[in-house]
């Protein structure tokens, strides 16, 4: 930081002291000889902005000059301050590093993103297998051959659907509805042809299909815009 200070004729300074807002001395400038009146001095003051690396966060004392603090991995410790009163807001992990890389699929508490290789290419991380009921979706299934099934009688998401046909070929029609439509003209959300004595498996994961009213599926020997129900199919779906 450069400075230039003129002095009035009534002053003959021998020393100039620079302080911060808290009154802490930053640097003292002492000329080689007493300055004459009406003199102007100029120069540079270096403000130390380096950070001290420590394993644990330091404790500061009011009114003292302290260096910035960083982690041993180079992360700058920062505590957000809100409002004019300077209220500190603690954060769960104040040392998150956007530059930290980790092996693919390996959790890292100090990484904002986990990258799979040195070039920074993201690698998908799969969910570990678990027997807990909260990690999976229960299937909604047919109890006998039928022409259709209401998978969910309210708004929701469709993640997967399996349909097996009998002796007749036809179409698997999916509707945004809480009921199976009657035979005739229809406007399904999805339509898939299926051969006789065959099966199809459909998946919309991890991004499911959203239905604003309900989720129902039907098997029709005609289609895709004409419904002729045939009670010869088996349905199994995963909804939420």
For the biggest sheet, the summary is:
5 strands, antiparallel
Q: What is the CATH T-level topology of the largest domain? A: Jelly Rolls
- Report the portion of residues in β strands: 25-35%
Domains (count): 3
Question: Could you list the spans in which at least 5 consecutive residues all have pLDDT below 50?
Answer: 91-101, 110-115
Taking the alpha carbons of the first and last residues, their distance comes to: 62 Å
Task: Provide the residue-averaged pLDDT.
Answer: 75
Shape: rod-shaped
**Structural class of the helices, strands and pairings?**
mainly beta
Count every beta strand, where a strand is a DSSP E run of 2 or more residues. Answer: 19
**Would you state the CATH class of the largest domain?**
Mainly Beta
Multimerization state: single chain
Task: Please give the CATH architecture of the largest domain.
Answer: Sandwich
Enumerate how many helices there are, as a single number: 0
What is the rounded Rg? 36 Å
Helix/strand order? EEEEEEEEEEEEEEEEEEE
Helix content: under 10%
């Amino acid at each position: 930081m450069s400075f230039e200070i003129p002095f009035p004729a009534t002053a003959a300074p021998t020393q100039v002291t620079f302080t911060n807002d808290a009154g802490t001395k930053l640097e003292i400038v002492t000329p080689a000889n007493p300055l004459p009146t009406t003199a102007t001095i100029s120069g540079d003051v270096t403000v130390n902005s380096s950070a001290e690396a420590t394993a644990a966060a330091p404790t500061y004392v009011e009114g003292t000059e302290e260096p910035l603090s960083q982690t041993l991995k180079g992360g700058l410790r920062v505590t957000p301050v809100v409002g004019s009163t300077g209220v500190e807001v603690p954060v769960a992990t104040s040392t998150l590093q956007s530059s930290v890389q980790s092996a693919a699929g390996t959790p890292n508490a100090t990484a904002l993103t986990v990258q799979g290789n040195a070039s920074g290419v993201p690698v998908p991380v799969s969910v570990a297998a678990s027997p807990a009921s909260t990690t999976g979706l229960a299937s909604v299934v047919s109890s006998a051959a039928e022409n259709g099934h209401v998978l969910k009688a309210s708004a929701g998401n469709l993640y997967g659907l399996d349909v097996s046909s009998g002796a007749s070929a036809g179409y698997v029609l999916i509707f945004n509805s809480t009921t199976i439509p009657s035979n005739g003209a229809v406007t399904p959300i999805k339509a898939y042809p299926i051969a006789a004595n065959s099966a199809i498996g459909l998946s919309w994961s991890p991004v499911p299909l959203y239905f604003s009213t309900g989720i129902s599926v039907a098997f029709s020997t005609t289609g895709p815009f004409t419904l002729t129900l045939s009670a010869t199919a088996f349905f199994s779906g995963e909804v939420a």
